[in-house]
Amino acid sequence: MEDSRLRRSVLLDFYGELLTEKQRECYDLHYNEDLSLSEIAEQSGISRQGVWDNIRRADAALEELEEKTGLVARVTALERELADLREQLERLRSAEGAGGSANGI
After folding, report:
1. pLDDT under 70: residue ranges of the chain
2. S-S: 62 plus which of 11, 18, 72, 92, CB 3.0-4.6 Å?
3. Is 3.30.40.10 the CATH number for 4-69?
């Protein structure tokens, strides 16, 4: 997964419930809603430093969870395999249709 924002969003989707409510809120607002630290601080009633600390802790926790479980990596690999299987199925269907066979898959 190349894009770091996309990676962070996926990690939050998979493991977000394991963060504290404040970490999850700050992380989501910063990376998914694209709010600045100042905007999040004002909305949450904490300092900019407090927002930054929550985001850094959340980022570290999410990365550690993925490192330990590998869940996102496994799901991503399975999605790639499924896409490959779908392509193979479509090729088989196309070849079968071109050959004039009456048997369906």
Report:
1. 1-2, 100-105
2. 11
3. no
Residue count of the chain, please give it: 105
- Report the predicted TM-score, pTM, of the whole model to 2 decimal places: 0.78
For residues 30 and 48, the answer to whether their CB atoms sit within 8 Å is no
Q: Residue ranges of the domains in the chain? A: 4-69
- Helix (H/G/I), strand (E/B), else coil: 19: coil
Residue 11's contacts (CB-CB under 8 Å, 6 or more residues apart) are 62, 63, 65, 66, 72
Residue 45 backbone class (left: φ over 0; alpha: ψ -120 to 50; beta: rest): left
| Per-residue model confidence as pLDDT tens digits over 67-77 | 999 999 999 99
